[in-house]
Amino acid sequence: MFDNPYILIIGISLLVILSYLYNAIAAKTKIPSVLLLLFTGMGFTAIYGQMGYQLPETKPGLQFLGIVGVILIVLEGSLELEIRRDKIRLILKSFFSALVILMVSAFYIAGGIQLVYSEFTFHICLVNAIPLAVISSAIAIPSVKQMEEDKKEFIVYESIFSDILGILFFNIVVSNETFQKESIFWLGADFLIIVSVSVIFTALILLFINKTTLNIKFFLMLAVLIMLYAFGKLVHLSSLLLILFFGLFLNNIRLVRNEKLNTYIDMGKLRLGIDRFRLITNESAFLIRTFFFFIFGCSVSFALLYDFRIAITGSIIVGILYGIRYLYLRFLAKRNLYPELFIAPRGLITILLFYAIPEKYSIGLISEGVLFFVILVTSIIMMFGLMKSTEKIPDMEIYVGKDKVDKING
C-alpha cells in the first residue's frame, strides 16, 4: 500500500493536519491531543489489518522519535522558563515535588511488584517500576499553556525535573545493583561536566546567532545539540541536563550584565534570533510528538482495553501514583490540589525508559498493555482535572491544631 510514495506523503500530511486539529480540540475541550493521536494510531492499525496488511516493527522508530522528542520537549519547556529571584521558591518546590514523588512512587510500585513476583530481587522490580513513576513533560507542558502563571510554571518545572531525574535515577539503578560511595562522586562529576559544557556551548551559540549571515542556522543548532546529547549518553553523562541548562541560559541571557559582552553581541539581534529559535523548537517538538504517539498507538491493540488483568494491575499502579502525589502536595508541599494533583500524566519518557530496560531485567513484570493502560488513565485524569480547574474553586483551608491557615495558594 505504501510502496507508492505519493500515498505515503498524503498519509503523513493528513496526520500532521489531524494533529493540528486535535490541538485545537484540546484547547476547547481539555481532551489531551495525545489521547486522540493514540486512538488514531490504534484505529489505523485495526483498519490496516482488516485490509490484509501488517505493520513493520515499530520499536526502533519509537526509540528514535522518543530520544529526539525528549530533547525537543525539554528544550521547548526550558525556553519558556524565566529565572527571577521571586521564582526561586517555586523552582525549589517543583524540584523536590518531582524528586520525592518519583522516588517514593518507584519504591512503592517496586514493592508491590515484588509482593506478586517474590522470585525476583527488589533491584529488578525497581528497574521495571521507575518508568511508571516519571511524569511526562511531553503531555503535561502542552496541556497547561492556558493555566494561570504560577500553576503553569510549577507543572512545567516539575514535569521537566521529573523527566531528568527519572532518566538519571533509571541509569543509576540499571548500572549499580548496589549503591556505593563512588556513585555519589560520579554524580557530582557528571553535574559539573554538564554545567561546564552547557556554559561553553551556550556562549558559542550566542556568538553564532549574532555573527552568522546565513539564513539557515537554527536546524544546524538543533543538530549540534542533539549530537552533544548523543555523545553524552554514550559516555554515560546526564545529557538531558545539558538541554535544560542550555534552554535556561538562552532564555535568561538578560541576567548577564557585562559591558565587554555587549561589545561582542548585539542584544537586539540576539533576542530576535532566540525568538526564532524558540519558534523552530516548538514546531519541531509538535511534529515529533505527533509521530511518536501515533506510532505508539499503532503498536497497541484495542484488545488490551478488555483484558481484566491489565485493568487490575494498571489501576493499582495508578492508585499508588495518585495516592503518593496527594499526600505530598497536601501535607508537605501544602499547595492547592486543583489542578496540580491531577496533572501527572505518563507518556513519552515512560515508553522510552520501558524500551530501554536491559534484556536481563526485561522479564515481563510490566507488560506493554499495563504501560498503555497507565498512560491512558493518567491522561484521562489530567483531562478531568483541567476541566475542573476552569471552574471557580474556593480557596483551601486547613487547620493545624487550633490555628487556622487560610488560602494556601502554593
Q: What this model shows, in words?
A:
The chain has 410 residues and is mostly helical. The chain has a single domain (5-406), classed as Na+/H+ antiporter like fold (Up-down Bundle). Helix content is 71%, strand content 2%. The chain has helices at 5-29, 33-50, 59-78, 88-116, 122-133, 137-143, 149-175, 181-211, 218-234, 239-251, 259-264, 267-298, 308-332, 348-356, 368-389; strands at residues 397-400, 403-406. Strands 1-2 form a two-stranded antiparallel ribbon. The longest helix has 32 residues, at 267-298. The relative contact order is 0.16.
Supply the key terms:
disordered C terminus, 71% helix, two-stranded antiparallel ribbon, 410 residues, Na+/H+ antiporter like fold, 2 strands, 2% strand, mainly alpha
What is this structure's SSE topology?
Layout: H1 5-29, H2 33-50, H3 59-78, H4 88-116, H5 122-133, H6 137-143, H7 149-175, H8 181-211, H9 218-234, H10 239-251, H11 259-264, H12 267-298, H13 308-332, H14 348-356, H15 368-389, E1 397-400, E2 403-406
Antiparallel strand pairs: 1-2
Helix pairs in contact: 1-2, 2-12, 3-7, 3-10, 3-12, 3-14, 4-5, 4-7, 4-13, 5-7, 5-14, 8-10, 9-10, 13-15
Concise synopsis of the structure shown:
With 410 residues, the chain is mainly α. It is built from 15 helices and two strands.
